[in-house]
Amino acid sequence: MSIVAHRGEMLHFLDDPAQHGDAAWQYFPDGALVIEQGHVAACGDARAVLPQWRAAEVIAHPDCLLVPGLVDTHVHYPQCEIIAAYGTQLLDWLQRYTFPAEARFHERAHADRISAIFLDELLRNGTTTALVFGSVHAQSVDAFFTAAAARNLRMICGKVMMDRNAPAQLCDTPQTSFADSQALIDRWHGKGRLGYAVTPRFAPTSSDQQLQLAGQLLAQNAGVHLHTHIAENIQECEWVAELFPACADYLAVYEQYQLLGRRSLFAHGLHLSEREWARLSACEANVAFCPTSNLFIGSGLFALQKADAHGVRVGFGTDIGGGDSFSLLRTINEAYKVQQLQQNNLSPLRSLYLATLGGARALDLHQSIGNFTPGKEADFITLKYRATPLLEFRIATCKTLLEKLFVLLMLGDDRTVGGVWIMGKQMKTDAR
Ligand code: GUN
Ligand code: ZN
Question: In Å, how far are 310, 320, 398 from 268, measured between CA atoms?
């Protein structure tokens, strides 16, 4: 097997810079990332590393910043066709746009076609791992995992469980959702780089019996994830209070069926109480911050400071198609503005951490991906300082790494992503 050393400017994280300051990140202006059999063998200053790897083929990356692959902790692949749908907020948006689009996934050929489009779009945007909603149809997940395996991607997906308050053709039953989910777990979980997430859509579209069976799936299948939505929209929260009058709050609905744990990810969490934040923290559960979606469908502003104060792990989500961009760079841009509106500065180091190692931690995948420590799977990307004339012009005025990084993140999008490597193999080639 050949050994390859990628040489260039590189940045990665060992920890959360919000907690560990400058000890949390490593920056090499002239770095070397050595890849052997798809994994990181070494990462450091090129002049120190390369003499120890004389057999390595060296590939240079000028005018780029090399960083770990980006992690999207919440996205819906069946919603590719409804990105940028006009004029509604969550509950109307689901009825008018989302459910009709998801109904088309009863056809395997459609699911195959959209899976390929979705994964190619993720890669074009530098996203190498995601936690993904399928549709209610089990075969939507078969199609997705087949396409992800063909690209050798580390992906987590699950079939939506939804047995009420949705069109009849999109509803399963507690029993069929349980059996279909278990069959998908048996077929796909732990196969290569794939993992399964038990995926009740959100409390309003599941009966108590279905949520209880979701808890049973988690209990009987060690290592699977739990993926759902929480407290995204005010009307949604009021509806949950009506549907589950015995529960003290929204999170209590999920808590009573043991859906909270280290591998649970709750999308949004815009309208959570102190009690709910404290419980998320105590259970080591994770939250996806989805700023493009929260702005696009008018849901609210995510309180990152609350999550931080409670020590709740956060990752970024694009939430396609509630969100209007596949790009985690665009997501970082909107996240910055959402924090600005709350007098909070989201630093460039923190946001790149959240999009890489932070996302990997929120998915409990940090043993495998998220940074360049030896042994990690070698998923990485290059970001081009000269991707657009404006970026090139503005970068030329920057004096420090942090200035350069902030400009790159704020002005970056899919054009900024040069190459994408999956376990050391190049998937996207830089055209410029
Ligand atoms: N809540 C329940 N379903 C959905 C969905 O598909 N997208 C978003 N953003 N929120 C939801
Ligand atoms: Zn969502």
Answer: 16, 13, 34
DSSP-derived 3-state class of residue 56: coil
> Model confidence over 304-338: pLDDT tens digits?
999 999 999 999 999 999 999 999 999 999 999 99
Average pLDDT, the chain: 98
390 exposure class (CB count in 10 Å sphere: 0-12, 13-18, 19+)? exposed
Q: What angle do CA 305, 307, 312 make, to 5 degrees?
A: 150
pLDDT in tens, 366-406: 999 999 999 999 999 999 999 999 999 999 999 999 999 99
Dist. CA 293 → ligand 1 center (Å): 10
Q: Which atom of ligand 1 is nearest to the CA of 299?
A: 9
For each of the domains in the chain, give its residue range(s) and CATH number, in order of start.
4-69+371-426 (2.30.40.10), 70-362 (3.20.20.140)
**Amino acid, single-letter form, for residue 363:** L
Q: How far is the CA of 126 from the centre of ligand 1 (A)?
A: 24
C-alpha 229 – ligand 1 centre gap (Å): 7
Question: In what helix (H) or strand (E) does residue 118 lie, and over which residues does it extend?
Answer: helix 108-124
